[in-house]
Specification:
InterPro entries: AAA+_ATPase (IPR003593), ABC_transporter-like_ATP-bd (IPR003439), ABC_transporter-like_CS (IPR017871), ABC_transporter_ATP-bind (IPR050166), P-loop_NTPase (IPR027417). One of its GO terms (molecular function) is ATP binding. Keywords: ATP-binding, Nucleotide-binding, Transport. This is NitT/TauT family transport system ATP-binding protein. Belongs to the ABC transporter superfamily. It is globular and about 50 Å long. A six-stranded mixed beta sheet has the order 5-6-7-3-8-9, sandwiched between helices. α5 crosses α6 and α8 packs across α9. The protein folds into two domains: 176 residues, P-loop containing nucleotide triphosphate hydrolases (Rossmann fold), CATH 3.40.50; 69 residues, no CATH class. The protein is built from nine helices and nine strands. The chain is α/β, with parallel strands linked by helices. β6, α7 and β7 form a beta-alpha-beta unit. The N terminus is likely disordered. It binds adenosine-5'-diphosphate and magnesium ion. Magnesium ion (MG) binds next to α1. Magnesium ion binds next to α1.
Length: 270
């Protein structure tokens, strides 16, 4: 069940590759890493879900991938180069738990926001058509709605559409469905898998939900705290069909969820 990261160079075809990565925040002279010794390979077009106790560094890891924070030590490549290069090419999209939609712009205006603030489009693929995104995210018919006329699930769909506008090759999602009810979350999870298959985007998806991590993830990165480290990388690809799907209630998925729960408990102990 465990995939041991190879100790050599990055596997070619990796969208994200890390070796001995230490990440954290500098406090004056010293910097105690939040996470240390991270070895990781996410294949291009992969779907990695990330589980770990609160404060273990899940959001910090996404920040380093997105080049919003420099690593303290070790190596990381994003799409074969430094994270800054991927960022400059706008290869990375980000969706947060509480998507901030501009309240005075309608759905279409919020999705198209990156076009306004994006600056030059040199060497960039054509942005996706907004109507195509509306259809892709099940928002057709809601283009003229204002954010306060949307449900929580619809708002997150708008945030995802906005993140996909510039066709990023990597989508980082930080507890995007954490505030939604379970039925809405299940439906959005199915839509995420369809979206992932259709676009071929590499996805890193942080969640607190073991069920969500097992259902969405083709690989699950389980992080531990005290000290922050990789507890295990669980490969679920053998349990998924060719579309990356599985039956939520299948015995092998239930067993994986139990395994993830044990890993989390072990990694949360002080
Ligand atoms: N901007 C920051 N400056 C200093 N420390 C931070 C900052 N952001 C987060 N931290 C600390 O880094 C650790 C990991 O935070 P975070 O990555 O947000 O955890 P998680 O997303 O797993 O809950 C926590 O101890 C947190 O307090
Ligand atoms: Mg977080």
């Amino acid at each position: 069940m465990t995939v041991a990261p190879d100790s050599g160079n990055a596997i070619s075809g990796s969208a994200i590759s890390a070796r001995g990565l230490a990440i954290g925040y500098s406090h004056g002279a010293g910097a105690l890493p939040v996470l240390d010794g991270v070895d990781l390979d996410v294949p291009a077009g992969g779907f990695l879900t990330i589980l770990g106790p609160s404060g273990c560094g899940k959001s910090t890891l996404l920040r380093v991938v997105a080049d919003l924070l420099a690593p303290l030590a070790g190596a990381i490549t994003v799409l074969g180069g430094p994270p800054a290069q991927a960022r400059a090419r706008r290869d990375i999209g980000f969706v947060f738990q509480d998507s901030t939609l501009l309240p005075w712009r309608d759905v279409r205006g919020n999705i198209e926001l990156p076009l306004l603030v994006g600056g030059g489009r040199r060497n960039r693929p054509e942005p996706m058509a907004t109507d195509e995104l509306l259809a892709l995210l099940g928002l057709a018919g809601l283009a003229e709605r204002m954010p306060d006329q949307l449900s929580g699930g619809q708002r997150q769909r708008v945030a995802i559409a906005r993140a996909l506008l510039s066709r990023p090759r990597i989508l980082l999602m930080d507890e995007p469905f954490g505030a939604l009810d379970e039925i809405t979350r299940d439906r959005l999870n199915d839509e995420m898998l369809a979206l992932w298959r259709r676009t071929g985007t590499t996805i890193l998806f942080v969640t607190h939900s073991i069920a969500e991590a097992a259902y969405l993830g083709q690989q699950v990165l389980v992080l531990a705290a005290h000290p922050g480290r990789v507890q295990e990388i669980v490969d679920l690809r053998p349990l998924k069909d060719s579309d990356g799907r599985c039956d939520r209630d299948a015995p092998e998925i239930v067993a994986v969820a139990a395994h993830l729960r044990r890993l989390l408990a072990a990694g949360s102990a002080r």
